[in-house]
Amino acid sequence: MGITLSGVGKKFDRWIFRSLNLSVADGESVVIIGPSGQGKSVLLKMIAGLLPCDEGQIQVPAHHLGMLFQKNALFDSLTVRENLTFPLRERLGIRGEKAEALSKEMLSAVGLSGSENLYPDEISGGMQKRLGIARALIVDPEILIFDEPTAGLDPITSKKIADLIRSLKAKKKLTSVTVTNDVHRAYQLGDRIFLLSQGRLLGGLSPEQTQKTEIPEIRQFILGLKQGPLTEATVESGGPE
Amino acid sequence: MKTAPAKNLQSNLHQVGQAFQEQVDTIQDIALLFKATLGWFFKRPWRWDEIFHSVVQMGIGSLPVVLISTAFAGMVVTNELAWHMNEALSSISMIPGVSGQFIVRELGIAVPAMILVAKVGASTTAEIGTMKVTEQIDALKLLGIDPVGYLVFPRLIAAIISITALTLIAIGFTLIFAIFVAVAKFNFGTFEFINALRPFVGVGDLACALCKGISFGILIPMIACGYAFRCQGGAKGVGSTTTNAVVTATVAVILVDFIWTYVFSLLL
Lengths: 241, 268
Ligand SMILES: Nc1ncnc2c1ncn2[C@@H]1O[C@H](COP(=O)(O)OP(=O)(O)O)[C@@H](O)[C@H]1O
Ligand SMILES: [Mg+2]
Hints:
The complex is a heterodimer of chains A (241) and B (268).
Chain A: E1 3-11, E2 15-24, E3 29-33, H1 40-47, E4 55-59, E5 65-68, H2 82-92, H3 96-109, H4 125-138, E6 143-147, H5 155-172, E7 175-179, H6 183-189, E8 192-197, E9 200-205, H7 207-212, H8 216-223, H9 232-236
Parallel strand pairs in A: 3-7, 3-8, 5-6, 6-7
Antiparallel strand pairs in A: 1-2, 1-4, 8-9
Chain B: H1 4-39, H2 48-89, H3 95-133, H4 136-142, H5 147-186, H6 190-197, H7 203-229, H8 234-267
Helix pairs in contact in B: 1-5, 1-7, 2-3, 2-5, 3-5, 3-6, 3-7, 3-8, 5-7, 7-8
């Protein structure tokens, strides 16, 4: 199940980006890095079909698409367990004991056994991320979209979550698009890595090539240099996240 | 320095214009939302558990505060009218007719309506607005769930049921406490009061109350949800959106109350 973006653009008060082209092959993992406020989340929502394109088109042939939102978007009136049984019932029509069993299995896969009856705001940030990932995976998606799966987590938890994503993806050969600002996670999760900056997608190189690339924007971003084509204005336009 | 006031005026005018445009857009959105919600009358399944949950939350949840406020409203109105009549006419024999009619046609309806705008309207906007800004609504869409069918329609049905019922209950309750004061303080007999009231209230008043109750049951959740879906910008956004929704709903309820009163005054 590949994803194809042709000449995609998005406009709010101004154009956030224009004429982006990207194709993600079946089973491929693409990672998008970039300064905040450049439209990475907007792009993911467009791929998920939650925002319309203002130019160009996006082809996503998946029936089931799972998404982890930047701020998790967990259903806060439902318990941890219900956050999984609810999608099962609504999306796949699975209810009762089968749903209970599936959600139990998923919770143990993401290391959340024992928190079934807590509410999302009663668990830690790392646990919320893992629940968000579990909710994205429970609908048995062919395409996965992760918006900053490790942002705001300590390095150890962040590594654990990236390992978790890798192992879960490996089992099913899923296609995925991940946005992250954590360069290490980008290397760990991506077959190809792009940088979204000033309305353009740059790079598209393997982790090894990305580390060695001479593309100035990417070099500046991964090395965290002050001097370079990414001006302070572009880096900070979205504010810290 | 000299140009400053002119510039200020211009930017103020610009702001007023923007706020006005925002209101117009919102009202348009509410109309569209209402249309989409009506479509769900013909779609299945109706989510009865959601409807039931909302009836409990809106109806049963608002009952205590509605009863307390209407009881006091009933007592106050009899007391004040009695004082005024005694001063002006040196007779309080007209109390049942005047206070009874005032309660059945207006007071017993307007007081609970204002409370329900504050309680049901505000909580609905805050709840759904929070879901909007935390992207829970996007998460619902991703599961193939139409937020209108899942969030708005059940609340509309629940609000029509609860608010209509509460309006009728409130009229009865206001009247009971008006009679209580008349009996306890001004020596009316209970049946004497009711008999004296009879010529002034009838089936038409009941119909009017029903129309108002149902209208409020539609207006309050639709305005609340319409604002909530436009909510943006975190907790602060939810706060200001809730305030705006309550203000608009208050004005709308008073306006519709007036319109029904006028319509029935032509009919009766
Ligand atoms: N619903 C929206 N309405 C208006 N502007 C928006 C909306 N969503 C995002 N934006 C704007 O689009 C830009 C990109 O946002 P976002 O995709 O969240 O950035 P990133 O995820 O790269 O940090 C920001 O300037 C943001 O203010
Ligand atoms: Mg983002």
